[in-house]
Design a protein that fits this description.
Elements (H helix, E strand, L loop, with lengths): L3 E3 L17 E5 L4 H9 L3 E2 L8 E3 L4 E4 L8 H9 L3 E4 L3 H14 L8 H12 L3 E8 L2 E11 L2 E9 L4 H16 L3 E5 L3 H5 L3 E3 L1 H11 L18 H4 L2
Parallel strand pairs: 1-2, 9-10
Antiparallel strand pairs: 2-4, 3-4, 5-10, 5-11, 6-7, 7-8, 8-9
Protein backbone atom coordinates (compact mmCIF):
# COMPACT_ATOMS: atom_id res chain seq x y z
CA UNK A 1 0.00 0.00 0.00
CA UNK A 2 1.20 3.56 -0.61
CA UNK A 3 2.42 5.79 2.24
CA UNK A 4 0.47 9.03 2.01
CA UNK A 5 2.05 12.48 1.90
CA UNK A 6 0.02 14.85 4.07
CA UNK A 7 -1.02 18.23 2.74
CA UNK A 8 0.22 21.17 4.85
CA UNK A 9 -2.37 23.13 6.84
CA UNK A 10 -5.05 20.44 6.49
CA UNK A 11 -5.62 18.08 9.40
CA UNK A 12 -6.76 15.22 7.18
CA UNK A 13 -5.57 11.61 7.27
CA UNK A 14 -6.09 8.61 4.99
CA UNK A 15 -8.11 5.64 6.30
CA UNK A 16 -6.15 3.69 8.91
CA UNK A 17 -6.76 0.38 7.15
CA UNK A 18 -4.46 1.63 4.39
CA UNK A 19 -1.45 1.64 6.73
CA UNK A 20 1.61 -0.45 5.90
CA UNK A 21 2.06 -3.79 7.63
CA UNK A 22 4.27 -2.15 10.26
CA UNK A 23 1.63 0.52 10.91
CA UNK A 24 3.12 3.41 8.93
CA UNK A 25 0.28 5.41 7.40
CA UNK A 26 1.51 8.82 6.28
CA UNK A 27 4.44 11.26 6.26
CA UNK A 28 4.75 15.02 6.48
CA UNK A 29 2.29 17.53 7.82
CA UNK A 30 2.97 19.32 11.07
CA UNK A 31 2.53 19.04 14.84
CA UNK A 32 -0.14 21.67 15.33
CA UNK A 33 -2.77 21.17 17.98
CA UNK A 34 -5.44 20.67 15.33
CA UNK A 35 -3.53 17.97 13.47
CA UNK A 36 -2.44 16.12 16.61
CA UNK A 37 -5.94 16.02 18.05
CA UNK A 38 -7.34 14.93 14.68
CA UNK A 39 -4.74 12.16 14.55
CA UNK A 40 -5.40 10.80 18.02
CA UNK A 41 -9.14 10.89 17.49
CA UNK A 42 -8.59 8.51 14.54
CA UNK A 43 -6.16 6.20 16.33
CA UNK A 44 -3.07 7.71 14.69
CA UNK A 45 0.07 9.06 16.37
CA UNK A 46 3.40 10.61 15.29
CA UNK A 47 6.65 8.75 15.86
CA UNK A 48 9.91 9.73 14.21
CA UNK A 49 13.48 10.73 14.97
CA UNK A 50 15.74 13.68 14.17
CA UNK A 51 16.53 13.77 10.45
CA UNK A 52 13.28 12.08 9.45
CA UNK A 53 10.07 13.67 8.19
CA UNK A 54 7.10 13.42 10.55
CA UNK A 55 5.87 9.82 10.40
CA UNK A 56 2.29 8.90 11.35
CA UNK A 57 1.39 5.42 12.60
CA UNK A 58 -1.64 3.26 13.25
CA UNK A 59 -0.35 -0.21 14.19
CA UNK A 60 -2.32 -3.45 14.05
CA UNK A 61 -2.64 -4.99 16.56
CA UNK A 62 -2.83 -2.23 19.17
CA UNK A 63 -1.77 -2.56 22.79
CA UNK A 64 -4.32 -1.26 25.31
CA UNK A 65 -4.78 -1.37 29.05
CA UNK A 66 -8.32 -1.48 30.36
CA UNK A 67 -8.08 0.15 33.82
CA UNK A 68 -9.94 -2.64 35.61
CA UNK A 69 -7.51 -5.21 34.14
CA UNK A 70 -4.35 -3.78 35.70
CA UNK A 71 -2.19 -6.50 37.26
CA UNK A 72 -0.24 -5.57 40.38
CA UNK A 73 2.48 -7.94 41.56
CA UNK A 74 2.91 -8.75 45.22
CA UNK A 75 6.17 -6.78 45.34
CA UNK A 76 4.60 -3.70 43.74
CA UNK A 77 1.68 -3.88 46.13
CA UNK A 78 4.15 -3.73 49.01
CA UNK A 79 5.73 -0.63 47.50
CA UNK A 80 2.30 0.98 47.18
CA UNK A 81 1.41 0.24 50.78
CA UNK A 82 4.59 1.90 52.03
CA UNK A 83 3.60 5.08 50.16
CA UNK A 84 7.26 5.73 49.48
CA UNK A 85 6.48 8.01 46.54
CA UNK A 86 4.41 11.16 46.52
CA UNK A 87 2.05 11.27 43.54
CA UNK A 88 1.52 14.59 41.78
CA UNK A 89 -0.52 15.34 38.69
CA UNK A 90 0.27 17.97 36.05
CA UNK A 91 2.74 19.71 38.37
CA UNK A 92 5.83 19.42 36.13
CA UNK A 93 4.75 18.36 32.65
CA UNK A 94 7.78 19.79 30.85
CA UNK A 95 10.14 18.14 33.31
CA UNK A 96 8.44 14.78 32.77
CA UNK A 97 8.54 14.86 28.98
CA UNK A 98 12.18 15.98 29.00
CA UNK A 99 13.06 13.22 31.47
CA UNK A 100 11.40 10.63 29.23
CA UNK A 101 13.70 11.73 26.40
CA UNK A 102 16.84 12.05 28.54
CA UNK A 103 16.51 8.62 30.14
CA UNK A 104 16.29 6.94 26.74
CA UNK A 105 19.37 8.84 25.56
CA UNK A 106 21.36 7.82 28.64
CA UNK A 107 20.42 4.21 27.97
CA UNK A 108 21.82 4.51 24.46
CA UNK A 109 18.40 4.30 22.82
CA UNK A 110 17.03 6.54 20.11
CA UNK A 111 14.13 8.79 21.00
CA UNK A 112 11.19 10.25 19.14
CA UNK A 113 10.75 12.83 21.91
CA UNK A 114 12.80 15.41 20.05
CA UNK A 115 12.58 19.15 20.86
CA UNK A 116 9.72 19.91 18.44
CA UNK A 117 7.72 16.99 19.85
CA UNK A 118 8.35 18.22 23.37
CA UNK A 119 7.10 21.67 22.40
CA UNK A 120 4.03 20.33 20.60
CA UNK A 121 2.92 18.25 23.59
CA UNK A 122 3.70 21.06 26.00
CA UNK A 123 1.37 23.23 23.92
CA UNK A 124 -1.31 20.53 24.22
CA UNK A 125 -0.70 20.45 27.98
CA UNK A 126 -1.28 24.19 28.17
CA UNK A 127 -4.51 23.67 26.23
CA UNK A 128 -5.62 21.06 28.78
CA UNK A 129 -5.28 17.94 26.59
CA UNK A 130 -1.89 16.54 27.66
CA UNK A 131 -1.17 15.42 31.21
CA UNK A 132 1.58 14.04 33.40
CA UNK A 133 1.38 11.66 36.34
CA UNK A 134 4.47 11.98 38.52
CA UNK A 135 6.22 10.04 41.28
CA UNK A 136 8.25 12.22 43.63
CA UNK A 137 10.78 11.08 46.22
CA UNK A 138 12.30 13.41 48.81
CA UNK A 139 11.10 16.42 46.83
CA UNK A 140 12.64 15.26 43.55
CA UNK A 141 10.97 13.88 40.44
CA UNK A 142 11.74 10.14 40.40
CA UNK A 143 9.50 8.82 37.62
CA UNK A 144 6.33 9.39 35.71
CA UNK A 145 4.46 9.29 32.44
CA UNK A 146 2.62 11.60 30.08
CA UNK A 147 -0.03 11.33 27.42
CA UNK A 148 -3.10 12.78 25.73
CA UNK A 149 -6.65 12.66 27.06
CA UNK A 150 -9.61 12.66 24.68
CA UNK A 151 -13.08 11.60 25.72
CA UNK A 152 -12.80 8.47 27.84
CA UNK A 153 -9.43 7.45 26.38
CA UNK A 154 -5.92 8.24 27.61
CA UNK A 155 -3.20 7.87 24.97
CA UNK A 156 -0.01 7.01 26.82
CA UNK A 157 3.09 8.42 25.15
CA UNK A 158 6.07 7.55 27.31
CA UNK A 159 7.19 6.87 30.86
CA UNK A 160 10.49 7.07 32.71
CA UNK A 161 12.00 5.91 35.96
CA UNK A 162 15.11 6.91 37.88
CA UNK A 163 14.19 4.88 40.97
CA UNK A 164 12.90 1.34 41.21
CA UNK A 165 9.13 1.12 40.71
CA UNK A 166 8.65 4.89 40.34
CA UNK A 167 7.09 4.66 36.86
CA UNK A 168 4.99 1.65 37.89
CA UNK A 169 3.58 3.64 40.82
CA UNK A 170 2.74 6.48 38.41
CA UNK A 171 0.93 4.02 36.13
CA UNK A 172 -1.05 2.64 39.06
CA UNK A 173 -2.02 6.20 39.96
CA UNK A 174 -3.12 6.85 36.36
CA UNK A 175 -5.26 3.71 36.42
CA UNK A 176 -6.77 4.68 39.78
CA UNK A 177 -7.52 8.18 38.48
CA UNK A 178 -9.00 6.72 35.29
CA UNK A 179 -11.39 4.50 37.22
CA UNK A 180 -12.53 7.42 39.35
CA UNK A 181 -13.17 9.84 36.48
CA UNK A 182 -14.50 7.35 33.91
CA UNK A 183 -11.58 6.83 31.53
CA UNK A 184 -12.32 3.46 29.92
CA UNK A 185 -9.18 2.73 27.90
CA UNK A 186 -5.47 3.52 28.09
CA UNK A 187 -3.80 3.27 24.69
CA UNK A 188 -0.27 1.89 25.06
CA UNK A 189 0.39 2.01 21.30
CA UNK A 190 3.28 -0.46 20.91
CA UNK A 191 3.59 -3.87 22.57
CA UNK A 192 6.24 -4.37 25.27
CA UNK A 193 6.75 -7.26 27.68
CA UNK A 194 6.73 -4.76 30.57
CA UNK A 195 3.25 -3.49 29.76
CA UNK A 196 1.94 -6.98 29.05
CA UNK A 197 3.06 -8.01 32.54
CA UNK A 198 0.96 -5.18 33.96
CA UNK A 199 -2.22 -6.37 32.26
CA UNK A 200 -2.12 -4.65 28.89
CA UNK A 201 -3.29 -6.74 25.93
CA UNK A 202 -3.24 -6.62 22.16
CA UNK A 203 -6.45 -6.05 20.22
CA UNK A 204 -7.12 -5.74 16.51
CA UNK A 205 -6.98 -2.21 15.15
CA UNK A 206 -10.61 -2.34 14.03
CA UNK A 207 -11.62 -3.34 17.56
CA UNK A 208 -9.49 -0.53 18.99
CA UNK A 209 -11.07 2.01 16.66
CA UNK A 210 -14.56 0.83 17.61
CA UNK A 211 -13.72 1.22 21.31
CA UNK A 212 -12.12 4.60 20.64
CA UNK A 213 -15.19 5.85 18.79
CA UNK A 214 -17.33 4.98 21.79
CA UNK A 215 -14.85 6.67 24.16
CA UNK A 216 -14.95 9.85 22.10
CA UNK A 217 -18.73 10.09 22.48
CA UNK A 218 -18.10 11.38 26.01
CA UNK A 219 -16.62 14.79 26.92
CA UNK A 220 -12.91 15.25 27.52
CA UNK A 221 -11.70 16.02 31.03
CA UNK A 222 -9.73 19.12 30.04
CA UNK A 223 -7.60 21.48 32.07
CA UNK A 224 -5.09 20.81 34.82
CA UNK A 225 -6.03 17.49 36.37
CA UNK A 226 -4.54 18.60 39.65
CA UNK A 227 -7.52 20.92 40.00
CA UNK A 228 -9.94 17.99 40.23
CA UNK A 229 -10.75 16.80 43.73
CA UNK A 230 -9.90 13.16 43.04
CA UNK A 231 -7.81 11.11 45.43
CA UNK A 232 -4.90 9.56 43.54
CA UNK A 233 -3.79 6.05 44.36
CA UNK A 234 -6.13 5.31 47.26
CA UNK A 235 -7.69 2.22 45.61
CA UNK A 236 -4.34 0.44 45.60
CA UNK A 237 -2.25 2.20 48.24
CA UNK A 238 -4.62 1.11 50.99
CA UNK A 239 -5.40 -2.47 49.89
Amino acid sequence: MPVYQLIPKLSLFPPTEEAEEDGLLAIGGDLTKERLLAAYSKGIFPWYEIGQPILWWSPDPRLVLIPEELKISRSLRKVLRKQKFEIRVDSSFQQVIKACADVRKRQGEGTWIIPEMQQAYTDLHEEGFAHSIESWLDGKLAGGLYGISLGQCFFGESMFSTRNDSSKVALVALVDFSIQVGIKMIDCQMTTAHLLSLGAREIKRKVFLKKLKKCLEQPTLKGNWNSHSVSIGTNYFQN
